[in-house]
Amino acid sequence: MIEDIRNYLALTESLASSGMPNAEQLSSVAAAGTNVVINLAPHTSAGATSNEEELVESLGMAYFNIPVDWNNPTRADLDDFMNVMEAHRESRVLVHCETGFITLYRILKLGWTREDAFQDLQKIWNPRNYPIWHKFIEQNLATEE
User: Per-domain residue ranges for the chain?
Assistant: First the structure.
């Protein structure tokens, strides 16, 4: 069931990314041993589970929502995301809806090479096809060089 989540990708034993999971899929996420769900989409996004926070917490997982505007991602959003990731480094985490943030986290906080970090991202989407995201990623990588 977990593999049925749109764009589900197990990145490591403790980190996975996906599109928006539904209520049944969130149950399978919990059953798979996930401790933390990070939702990077606004609650008003198409396909959003209306009571996602309550559902996730009732399943025994911690829930964080950082509502990133797809058309205007900000460094503050990225910093919030990286802070949550750092606080939960020892947890099993599902991040859904903005795989570009995981790529930046891997490069900026975990020291991954750009080439290695982008391999997983490009299994889902190519930032060059989304000019706003391409610019956002490049700007944030340039500030760290």
Answer: 2-142
The DSSP symbol for 47 reads T
pLDDT band at 144, cuts 50/70/90?
Answer: low
- Of the candidates 67, 68, 65, the one whose C-alpha atom is nearest the C-alpha of residue 136 is 68
Does 3.30.70.660 match the CATH number of domain 2-142?
no
Distance of CA 34 to CAs 12, 62, 89, 144, Å?
12, 9, 13, 31
pTM greater than the 0.85 cutoff: yes
- 74 by DSSP, 3-state: which? coil
Q: What mean pLDDT, rounded, does the chain reach?
A: 93
Give the whole-angstrom CA distance, residue 109 versus residue 35: 21
